[in-house]
Amino acid sequence: MAKPLSPLIPESVYAKRRREVLKRINGGVALFTANPVATLSRDRDYPFHQHTDFFYLTGFNEPEAALVLRSDGHGPSSVLFLRDSDPQRERWEGPRLGLKKARKAFQVDEVRPFVELPRKFRELVLGHPTLYYSPAGIRAIDELVFASLRSPVESREPLPFSVTDARAILNDMRVVKDHHEIELMRRAAAITGQSLIDISPMLPEFETELDVARSLESLFTQYGADGFAFDTIVASGPNATSLHHRPGTRKLRRSEAILIDSGATYGHYCADITRVLPLNGAFSPAQAVVYEIVHTALTNVTKRIRPGITLDELQRKAVKELSTGLVDAKIVKGPASAVILAGTYKKYYMHGIGHWLGLDSHDPSPFVSQKNGSFLAGRLRPLEAGNVITIEPGLYFDPKETSVAKEFRGIGIRLEDDVLVTSRGYDVLTGRVPSSREDIEAITGY
Q1: What is residue 329's predicted lDDT score, i.e. its pLDDT?
Q2: Residue 296 class from Cβ within 10 Å (0-12 exposed, 13-18 middle, 19+ buried)?
Q3: Which of 319, 326, 327 is nearest to 350 (CA)?
Q4: In what order do the strands lie in the sheet with 269-270?
Q5: Do the Cβ atoms of 60 and 52 come closer than 8 Å?
Q6: Domain 11-173 has what CATH class?
Q7: pTM of the prediction?
Q8: Do residues 345 and 383 touch, judged by C-beta distance below 8 A?
């Protein structure tokens, strides 16, 4: 059973975040809800994972909870709804925080039972023109929200006129990490990185991809992780040409390489690291050629990171590096400028250079607001100190790809680091994890 409260970030930090939301909703009212418990099959549930917007504002890790923030200055500005203690249910499901402890733990105006939310909600939204809502996929809450809007034919009650997506506010807030978050992400990166280093010389002991995945996840737990950022990707041989391959029972072959894309969480914050390891201790000549192209791209793109640059610009740099590498290695015909102009590289590099990282492995992408009221994608937002992104160039040659020489077919190489943007440039949070071809071959140790 997960702990109900995060002990790693003080409540004063969560309270500050809630005050910032109150400023941004400007006379409105906002609702944030916990994730529900989801059924896997019959009487079996999926492992509970908290809605990250709700967690960002509360640090609370139980289902059946909601936070209402009211910015009009009349009545309570913050009301937290949660389950009360229930000894009978707790006997089966584990301890709950309960109302009494919650009133001491949270810096909110009121703490109420979750069962009161449907009855109290209409009262709490009265007098607010806009209702900000961060959906959690709970149909009953969705219906409650829309039932609380002002009727177009009966408007005697001052209910909200409209619903606005509260996720836009949280996206913008979450994109810059404070020092508490950065330290948690450093720890998640350290756990993930050390586990990868430890498992490298053990690879000959494993028979299948699934063996590797479960053993790696066990190391995460031993080093203090509280969960996994995403389903671990372990792809051997040609399976590495599938970007999000699920580890299966395919037998590992010593002549092949294995791609591992994984991440531990610590304090709910994610790491996301990808490395490729030779199963016999040394890359084949063709594997080495592709590896060097990708590693050069990783190195040179990372060097460009600084405040003011965008993910879009970093993507263009990655495309140039990979295309130049493909031409120089005579894998494709040049010049590189023609490969870029024609989009030929997209056959072998079909994804972006990276993504935002935080409470989610793919953290929210903040929109860029324009003066004319329109919005641009987050990849066009200039990076700033406190952003954490991944850098993950890759090349993938399908086993049936006839446009490249036979020795390259079935090779997939992706390398990924987690990078903090600093005021002076960048800090690679995963920098202690070997990435050069020579260092990777060295840590395999056999």
Answers
A1: 98
A2: middle
A3: 319
A4: 227-228, 264-266, 269-270
A5: no
A6: alpha beta
A7: 0.94
A8: no
CATH architecture of 175-444: Alpha-Beta Complex (3.90)
Mean pLDDT over all residues of the chain? 93
136-145, 190-199, 334-343, 363-372: lowest mean pLDDT where?
Answer: 363-372
What whole-number distance in Å separates Cα of residue 66 and Cα of residue 142? 13
| Mean pLDDT on 81-110 | 96
How far apart CA 219 and CA 75 sit, in angstroms, is 49
Sequence ranges of the domains in the chain: 11-173, 175-444
Among the listed residues 181, 200, 195, the one whose alpha carbon sits nearest the alpha carbon of residue 359 = 181
Amino acid at 217: E
What amino acid positions are annotated as catalytic residues?
A: 43, 244, 261, 272, 351, 355, 362, 392, 396, 414, 416
Q: How many CB atoms lie within 10 A of CB 5?
A: 19
Phi, psi (degrees; rounded to nearest 5) at 84: -80, 170
Q: Which strand (E) or helix (H) includes residue 427?
A: strand 425-428
CB contact burial 184-202 (16+ within 10 A = b; e otherwise): bbbbbbbbbbbbbbebbeb
